[in-house]
Structure formats: structure tokens, C-alpha cells
Amino acid sequence: MHRIALIFLLFTSTLFSQSKTDLSYYLPDDVTYNTNIPTPKSIIGHEVGEWHITHDKLVQYMRELAEVSDRVSIKDRGKTFEGRPLILLTITSPSNHSNLETIKTQHIEATETDDANLSDRPIVVYQGFSIHGNESSGSNAVLALAYYLTAAEGSEIENLLENTVILFDPSLNPDGLQRFAYWANTNRGMNLNADPNDREFSEVWPGGRTNHYWFDMNRDWLPVQLPESRARIQTFHDWLPNILTDHHEMGTNTSFFFQPGIPSRTHPLTPKLNQELTRDIAKYHAKALDKIGSLYYSEESFDDFYYGKGSTFPDINGGIGILFEQASSRGHVQESDNGLLTFPFTIKNQFTAALSTLEAANGMRKEILEYQHNFYKNARKEASKEGSKAIIFGDEKDAAKTYHLAEILKRHKIKFHHLKSDVDLDGKTYKKGYSYVIPKNQKNTRLINAMFEKRTTFQDSLFYDISAWTFPLAFNLDYTETGMEKASNVVTELRHLQGGVSSKSEYAYLFPWNEYYAPKLLNSILKKGIRAKVSMKNFKANGKTYDYGTIMIPVQNQDMDASELYSFLNSTAQESHIKIDAVSTGLNDGIDLGSRNFRALELPKVALLVGDGVKSYDAGEIWHLLDTRYNIIPTKLDTKNFSRADLSRYNTIIMVNSYSALDDGNTKKLKQWLEDGGSLIAYRNTLRWLNSNELLKIDFKKKSSVKAKNISFEDRSNFRGAQVIGGAIFETTLDRSHPINFGYKNDKLAMFRNTTLFIKPNKNSYDNPIQYTENPLMSGYISEENLDSLKQTIPFKTGRIGRGKIMAFTDNTNFRAFWYGTNKLLMNAIFFRDEM
């Protein structure tokens, strides 16, 4: 019987491969089309859904439509890391196109005045597709959708386009889409195979989900650290769309999801009316999907809590974000619990939901325009109650971190001011040029609250993503509430970060380690072959205090003369935005420059373990950090090549979150490298691997046991989920004399955590340079049991094997590229490994 069923399944798969699905499969019935508009096949050479669209062909078709249709215009907004264009189409009626700037101006003005035209304006809809590159049915649906919006004729489409401005983003992740299309297409046979075990459905590491540096870009709408994000965020704030759709895919055995998500998991700053309107829009999706017989669900999973996701970001900006999740074929056709799931069917569902969104926008236009108008009207009322209150933030010893948080504010069109003069508040010094002031009485006051709030109480204990992201904590900046009287002029353009050498010296140069880009400068110095040393103690020189970690470059016994050294240091310091001090004597108040407490430094030669068994997100964050910010070139050492790699080329190997990336033979090889003097930096679950392989003895603290009482079978998963630390912020104390903490000016540091790894402190206090406080929770959700387990534990541990060193972190110090505040911990481990 099993054999008969298998033969039938293979037969149906073969039948599917013999019958091509043409464009009519996707398009609505009883609609005529303008024959002057090219079909997708006439440009890309195949039917929609026959092959996975590559980004170059997608762009080719979009440009062709813009060329021939008066309903479409196209704009290049920048490029990805791999140089692919970030295009945006604007699709609307020809009459709207001729008046587009006026429409945009009136649309924005309606968010800035109590009186606005709410009846005679088009609604603005931003439609974005496949931000996860291997969730490609969205971007493939774009082909049919763009054709329909451009070529369809009749009063219905004309009315829709007259009442709607569509901001059409065909690929939110061009690099990932291209990578996945290559994989799916190169593994496609002429006769399609639906067997889930086929190679087509199992991408090689790291897969096409992420962008070039392996980031999940659907977490970057609020931090805005990536070029793709910066393009779309500028478009968003230029237009403030009323609705934004985000088209995704999920597991093959599911169906189709549309928002709203689970009601109790909506962020409290999101107005209730937002969710009610989302529910009304959902009726349009249900009706459209009913019509084509597609299964779907809503309000059972996903949420609207973290504002850094595409479907939630609009909710704090006066819009309505909508997430779509389509069961994924992950190729061209695959067996599923719901029968054969074909790629064209997944495309059709995405097409249908995109169209139902536009129908909802048209049908609910006045209601949704009014909602946005009132959102900002009420926000202004809230802001006016704040009077002259403001938030001041900064770091008196690190201009760069402050600058980069200000950059994010500017991208979100949040107004802020320069500081009038140095200010001491709450025991902290806010230095002019190193600090900014944000007035709370402004248009985007709700967005400011969302970025700066610390929240520790929640309606629900489950989160689809992180529960905290407080930006000044992420940047390790001082911040407090103050008054606008301390502010001077509003910042229109951020001042360029300064750097350079104070003067030429014949003796030595010094620069503190506090600044964010100090590692970039030091790497350039060591790479040039210039000798440099690090201070293990504080001292004073020329009346200035220098902290632990100060870098000293002697002038004598270098491979270049004094003039060449000065010229190189000056240009490199300018590039790195670091101020270098020239000194003429080695005699100091405290240690002198010839002291043994200045330790010689070695150029880092870094290998980053990547490949099967390694968490690509974590690896990508470190690759991005080293490559784009510090000009450190890590060798991406693939696990499959580890056995034949010459490890003597590296003095540092970084192993991010991994359970079993290395087998016994490679573990033995790593151990020998360590015994010979190598340094290993390990993160998160790699610590369990280190402990089990006796590379680093770690005394893990057992989690407090939690027994389910009065928990039903139905609620068992929620009970277990409440014990997950999905992402929250916790306070630690620092021993600033320890090399892992060089460059930090405060003795407290906020750390991001999304693990339940707890390490007991060492008996010797000096072996606990970073330790969680007795009351560590600063922002986010953690269960009482886990909080009890976390108290007084340590997130960092060191050990030795032979001449080698191991430095182990329980927490991610480089989270999503915006956790600037703990990047220095990794850099200290890399540069000061021998001083640990």
C-alpha cells in the first residue's frame, strides 16, 4: 500500500512539472489588460513561478514597466553591500503622478496640523516583499502584481489608483533573494521532485534568509544599521504611509497568516484603534482568500511588540503594519500536511493578500486617514504636556557612540539639539560636543518614548522577538531627563567626528582607549608594523589623566623616522576620529612611560569560525563589526575546512554560538593550537561545548526548577515559553582595572541577554571582572525564577590551556549591530588577550 501511495505521489509530481502555470492563474477573472504593457514572461523569459526570480531579472521587469506605463515611476535609493540597486516603484493614477509632490506635502501636513483634508486625499500604502530572501513567494508575486496594477483596465482599477499611492518595494533583501534563487534554481529538475528530503529544500549554510553580512533585516527597522534599512526608512518618513505590508513565509505544513497577531502581545504604546483597524482590514483578506479556497488563520501566533520589525514599526509612527506569512514550498513543489504545496500556489496567496490590502485601503480610506491624523494630533497633545522637558544623552569620553545614536535619531526625523555648555547632572558630566538634547515636545514624541523607555512589567510573558531595546543602554551612554534651557541650536547636520595628532613629538604619543574607534586606529598602527603598548594602570601626563588601556606609541626604535611616524599617525587618527596627544617626556604622575605596566601589543590575526553548526546571525554580526567598523580582516574559517587549515596563521579564533561545530578530531586540533599559545574567544552555547570537552572548566548554575501547577495541556507551551529569556537588558558591575573592561568610564554596564546560561562567580573576586548585580533587571521580561538564577552570576570567564587563553562570554556583545555599548568587550578580548 505504501509503495502504491509513493508511486501516485511521484506521478502527481511529474504531472505538475508537465503543465506550466501561466499568468492567468494569478490574475482576477473578468479583467481586460492593456496589450501595450509587457507580461513578465516577455521580459524575464519564463512564466511567473516556473523558476525563482533572480533580483536582476526582477529589476529588469520593474524598469520596463516604468518605461512604458504612465502609472509607474521608479527610483534608485542606493545599493546593497553587494552593489544591487534598492529600487522603489510608485504606482498610482497618471493624474496623481503629475501632482505627486503636492500629494506628499499635503499628506505630511495632515500629520502636523489639527485641521486637515481627510476626504479628498489618496491613501498611501507601502508594500514590501521578501525581506527574508529565502521567503521568496512575495518577490515572485511582485511580477504578477505589478503587471496587474499597470495593465489592468476598467473603472475598478482606475478608482483604486486614483485613491491610492502605492510605494512598491519589490525586494527588501536583494542579496538574500539572489542567493536563494540561485540555490532553488540550480537544484530544480525538469521533472519536479516534491520529496522534502531533496537537496532543493535544504540550503547550504548560511542560506538566503539574510543579507550579505547574514543579518535578519526584519529586525533593523528601528536600529537602521544596514543600507537596505536606511533606504526604506527614509522612504517611510518621507511619506508616512498609512498601511505597510510585510510579506513573509513560514513552515511548509502551515497555511496562511495575516494580522492581527495575539492581542495580549501588542506593545502598550500602540493605540487600541490600530488593532481594531487591523482586524477590519483582515476581513478583506479573509474574503479574498475564501474566494480562491485558501486556508488561513489570524490572532493565533506572532505579535506586535518589538518596533524593529516591519509589521510593527508603522504602529508607533501613525500607520498600520500588516504581517503576511505564507506556508513555504522552499523550492518549486513540496509535500506538506495540506497536500502538494506548489510554488505558484504560494505566489497566488501573496498576490491575493497584496490585492486585498489595496482593496481595504480604498474601502477604508477616510477611516484610516482620520486614524493617522488623530494619532499625531493626540501625540502633539501628549507632547505639549511635557513642556520644556528633554532627554540629555552622551559620553564625555566617547564622541563616536553618541554620534551614532544621534544618527539613528536623525534617520527617524527626531529633532535634537546641541548642548549649550558642559553640564553635571545626577553625578554624570555631559560635555559639549559629546552630548545632545532631545526635546520631548515634538511630533515624534511617541517614537522617542519607544526608543528610550525602560519597561519591566508586561501583560504577557511570551514574545515573538526581544522584549527590550532601550537605545541609550544599548549604546552604554549616560542619559537623564533635563530641561531645554541647556540646549542650544537644533541639529540640522551632524558635525563630523574629529581626529588627529596634537603636535609632532620626538618622544611618544598617547591616546585613550575610551573612544569607540580606538580599536580601528590601533589595528592600523600594528598593521603598519609600528610598536605600541597598553597601559595597565592609570597615570597623569602633562596635567591630563589617562585611564586603564591607554595606548602609547614610542617614537624611537620604529621602522620609520619621527616625521614619517607623525604624518602616518595624524592621517590615520583623522580616519579613525581619534585625538592623539604628543608628549615630550616619559616622567609622569603615576607610572612612567618606560614602566613594565606598559605591555607590548601584537597585531591580531583573527579567524572566525563559520559554516555548519555555527549560528550565522552571530557570526555575521562579528564579521560586519570587524570588517565595516574596524578594518580588521577576519578569515572566515569554515567548519568543513577546519581539519586541513593551518591554524598557526592565527593568534585568535572566535567561536560564536555553537553546540557541536567541531568533531573530536578537530577539537583535538584546536586544543593543540591553544596549548601552543593561541587565544580562543567563545560565545553562548559554545561554553557548554568547552566545558564538556574539558577545554574550560565552567561551574554552571542550575536554573531554578519550575513546576507546572494548574497549567492545562493546552497552555503547556505558554508555560514553558515564559521561562525563555527572549531578549532583555541587565545591569553588571565592572572591575575597570581588568583588561576586558579597558575603555569603560563607568563601573556599571548594561548587557543584552537572550540565554539561560548562568555561571557561578569565582572564589577570587579579581576573577569576576564582570558580574550581574543583585537587582540586575533594567528593561525587558524575565521570569522570577530566571531572575533569581541570574543574580550575582558572571557573563565572562577566562581560562588557560598550556600557553593559550580562552575568553568566554555567555551573552552576545554585538547584538544586531546596534549594541555599540558592549562591542568594546570583544575588541578588548582581541587586542588585550595576553594581558588577561
Written description of the protein model:
- The protein is an alpha+beta fold and 836 residues long.
- 32% of the residues lie in helices and 20% in strands.
- The protein contains 23 helices and 34 strands.
- The protein has a seven-stranded mixed β-sheet with strand order 1-2-4-3-5-7-6, sandwiched between helices. The protein has a six-stranded mixed β-sheet with strand order 17-23-18-22-19-25.
- α19 (664-675) links the parallel β28 and β29.
Topology:
Elements: H1 2-18, H2 40-44, H3 55-68, E1 72-79, E2 85-91, H4 94-97, H5 100-109, E3 123-129, H6 137-151, H7 155-163, E4 164-169, H8 174-186, H9 227-239, E5 243-250, E6 256-258, H10 272-292, E7 320-327, E8 333-336, E9 339-342, H11 343-363, H12 365-384, E10 389-394, H13 399-411, E11 417-419, E12 423-425, E13 428-430, E14 435-439, H14 445-452, H15 471-474, E15 478-483, E16 487-490, E17 500-501, E18 508-511, H16 518-527, E19 533-535, E20 539-541, E21 544-546, E22 551-554, H17 562-576, E23 579-583, E24 589-590, E25 598-600, E26 606-610, H18 616-629, E27 635-638, E28 652-655, H19 664-675, E29 679-683, H20 686-692, H21 716-721, E30 728-734, E31 748-753, E32 770-779, H22 784-790, E33 796-801, E34 804-809, H23 823-831
Parallel strand pairs: 3-4, 3-5, 5-7, 17-23, 26-27, 26-28, 28-29, 29-34
Antiparallel strand pairs: 1-2, 2-4, 6-7, 8-9, 10-14, 10-15, 11-14, 11-16, 12-13, 18-22, 18-23, 19-22, 19-25, 20-21, 20-24, 30-31, 30-32, 33-34
Helix pairs in contact: 3-6, 6-11, 10-11, 16-17
